[in-house]
Amino acid sequence: MSLHGFETRPHNGLTHVIDKGLGPRAWEDVLETCGDYISIVKLGWGTAYVTPNLGRKLEVLREKPVVIGGTFLEAVIAQDKVDEYKRWITGLGLTHVEISDGVIDLERERKLELIADFAADFIVLSEVGSKDAEVVFAPYQWVEWIREELAAGAWKVITEGREGGTAGIYRPTGEMRTGLVDEIVHEIEPSELIFEAPTKSSQAWFVKHFGSNVNLGNIPPEEVIPLETLRLGLRGDTLQEVLLGGETAPAG
Amino acid sequence: MSLHGFETRPHNGLTHVIDKGLGPRAWEDVLETCGDYISIVKLGWGTAYVTPNLGRKLEVLREKPVVIGGTFLEAVIAQDKVDEYKRWITGLGLTHVEISDGVIDLERERKLELIADFAADFIVLSEVGSKDAEVVFAPYQWVEWIREELAAGAWKVITEGREGGTAGIYRPTGEMRTGLVDEIVHEIEPSELIFEAPTKSSQAWFVKHFGSNVNLGNIPPEEVIPLETLRLGLRGDTLQEVLLGGETAPAG
Amino acid sequence: MSLHGFETRPHNGLTHVIDKGLGPRAWEDVLETCGDYISIVKLGWGTAYVTPNLGRKLEVLREKPVVIGGTFLEAVIAQDKVDEYKRWITGLGLTHVEISDGVIDLERERKLELIADFAADFIVLSEVGSKDAEVVFAPYQWVEWIREELAAGAWKVITEGREGGTAGIYRPTGEMRTGLVDEIVHEIEPSELIFEAPTKSSQAWFVKHFGSNVNLGNIPPEEVIPLETLRLGLRGDTLQEVLLGGETAPAG
To answer: From CA A203, how far away is CA C185, in angstroms rounded?
Structure first.
């Protein structure tokens, strides 16, 4: 039963979802309702490690790429267990890995080595930006780091926003650092980036500025359907720009 | 097993719930736990259109009136597909429709015609107020529009608040425009209105000012039980006024 | 499949969860995924009373201590139905009770009598602090009340924070009254207390200041896994302090 003649424009933006502990029944529901719109699922920071039924959860998620949050790998690096971590995620059947330095001090050389090393066996998402809301880097610095990490083998580079949108490309108040984002996109193809955008206002901003194809990350599972409507112009925030304005979506 | 002798007062306020993409298992749970308190379910803005398992979802919701968010009809109007929309929602088995002009420019005449036209076959909820937080209309204007829409055949008129409580009868900060609400209720019976009230503080305000019978809209599914306790005076926010103060609830 | 050689430190902090109306399917999911980390489940304020399938819900929760929110007992006290309430919760199979005076005026003597009386048959959690965000008590007053309630037979005393973290030990803005908390803990063993801490920032503050063993309350079900990662230092907010700093957790 379709709505005859009503048209929306397809898009190819990635939707990167953050999970902070949903159970298997909830994930079955999410996948049935909006699995078509989910590109990758991140088990946030160290949540996977404390999930007793992780095997069953991964079984439910088997049709989606799953990646463990970068903060957990940072904890692993601090305990010098990187090889054990590789074996662990291989044993879990994971094909993707996230490499970040948002919490620990990690020398640039070491981070780039880790990216290159993991890239031999995994699809690497690297992340740039601090989780400390007080830490602010200059735009040229972001651009340089992103380029280095792509060159080292990262499939995509994630721009930090935290689960709440309060650090990295956001101010502690949640307001976006739009100048920073514009400067990054001036130098780097948006299709190489995933912007963490946990709130509706930030998602709408990205869709309006970079188009429906923009890659967005840290989307809560319950916001996947709402984000899809933003991308298609089926919500008030983007209806004029996307559905009526006829602007195509150049990001991807 | 009941609590012998403990008494609360029944109410007849409508609870209008907004769904933004829950799956069928979650809805089964919600209906089992608080279906008794749900008057109508709105599938917010264009979410229904992007829900692949919409048929199964409507099957789970079959005992409740379901209405598709007005923003989606606005998109349909903009594409000139109103007849197709009617056939679509008829095919879905829907009996209610929401007609709004919160996003697109719609001439008053045209909106009233649409209300009258749909009212021949559907129960119409019309909505007054802009989704643009910058747009502020005078109270007399709200009153005039509400009267016109009721006269055109609307069953109830919804006062705009958005999913977050940040436009229409709310300031962008989420604070309620209490003077506006008071002026509307001075002229229009509250039983003819549904006030969008997505936050606990706004729900408590309405219950305290207009009584337990007040019709409230855009209630998230997980807030139905909490709202029921507000209506009955079983939560701190309204216990004094509703349960102990002995004030009856005049709104309905 | 474990991560060989990676180590975290066990803790014994209580995690006291607030439910505001989840259904039985959702609870099955929560218990399977993080039941190991849940010490006690509170059915917030009067929600249990309006839950039609309460028996089935309690059946799902049978392996956890369940307690009904103190505000409901306050409503029962106001209607002079305390004996009926005891029979009701006994009939429901509950072993714990919460006694508060956050909404109604209850003389100190009467509250202490109620604690002593219930303590003969139930495990009593008493609560100190007003739900009215305008009401501020001096730290010495909190300390005196907590001591009296422990002496009267309370198993633990809860420090008020509300579901949102906006009263009691919090300012209306959500900011914590850290001076008040420090003074309380200067006089009372933290292991005798449960601090209501519904937000991540407050949870992280407590873990950083009082260690992983701190007892935290009003944790939403979906925040149990995230809180567990905070306690173990597997999230950015506490990774330095707990996992790398080597500080042990003295609270318990």
So the answer is: 42
